[in-house]
Design a protein that fits this description.
This protein has 6 helices and 11 strands. It is of the alpha/beta class. It has a single domain (9-120, 146-216), classed as Glutaconate Coenzyme A-transferase (3-Layer(aba) Sandwich), CATH 3.40.1080. The strands form 2 sheets. Strands 1, 2, 3, 4, 8, 9, 10 and 11 form an 8-stranded mixed sheet that branches. Strands 5-7-6 form a 3-stranded antiparallel sheet.
Length: 238
């Protein structure tokens, strides 16, 4: 069986260069490829196009790449937690393509499935639809959206094996699975790396055929984007 393991993020990101398009999995700050992002910072690659549901926060996730001006364009859905993103957008320093969240997920899935385009009603009649082909189906108007692919897809899973099979946990299943299929080179970092055959085949979310490189990450912070807690002394009643 092919062993797809590499020792670390540095080895996993070999060949990544200026001007490439990257997909980065995760939802908010959950399930993001923390180690791979740190390696991107170390490499200093520039003019990146980043496809991600969100843009991190100012001091974590993709927000770190925005601070160092390594990102030329963001293709995203939810970007409301990053002041530096807002500043760069308003000043014209950053190109931005905002996409409805479901459409973004489907564009990634379509790219991974080899589907060049599809029709969706989301965004029709709004700025999202400007310049896009539209058609009527069964009396309803739809926009044509194209599938997305990337030079590198950087994903993060809970467990993986040496053959590249991946299991995600909780909210990390948002965007990571479909992005894993849409990279010319898919790099998976995992919290736990096990020998091939140890994962239950019925529980595998991403088959290893989609993954080219896998490594065990370390020192995960797993930050919470917005921590909300109950005030001391206040009891909730059902």
């Amino acid at each position: 069986m092919i062993d797809k393991t590499v020792p670390n993020a540095q080895a996993a990101l070999q060949g990544l260069a200026d001007g490439m398009t990257l997909m980065l999995g995760g939802f908010g700050l959950c399930g993001i490829p923390e180690n791979s992002i740190q390696e991107l910072l170390r490499l200093g690659v520039k003019n990146l196009t980043c496809i991600s549901n969100n843009a991190g926060v100012d001091d974590f996730g993709i927000g770190l790449l925005l601070q160092t001006k390594q990102v030329k364009k963001m293709i995203s859905s939810y970007v409301g937690e990053n002041a530096e993103f807002e500043r760069q957008l308003l000043s014209g320093e950053l190109e931005v393509e905002l996409i409805p969240q479901g459409t973004l997920a489907e564009r990634c899935r379509a790219g991974g499935a080899g589907i060049p385009a599809f029709f969706t009603p989301a965004g029709y009649g709004t700025e999202v639809g400007e310049g896009k082909e539209s058609r009527e189906f069964n009396g309803k108007m739809y926009l044509m959206e194209t599938g997305l692919i990337a030079d590198f897809a950087l994903v993060k899973a809970w467990k993986g094996d040496t053959a590249g099979n991946l299991v995600y946990k909780g909210t990390a299943r948002n965007f990571n699975p479909m992005m894993a299929t849409a990279g010319k080179i898919t790099v998976a970092e995992v919290e736990e790396l096990v020998p091939a055959g140890e994962l239950d085949p019925n529980q595998i979310h991403t088959p290893g055929i989609f993954v080219q490189r896998i490594y065990q990450g370390a020192h995960y912070e797993k930050r919470i984007e917005q921590r909300t807690v109950r005030q001391a002394g206040i009891r909730q009643h059902l």
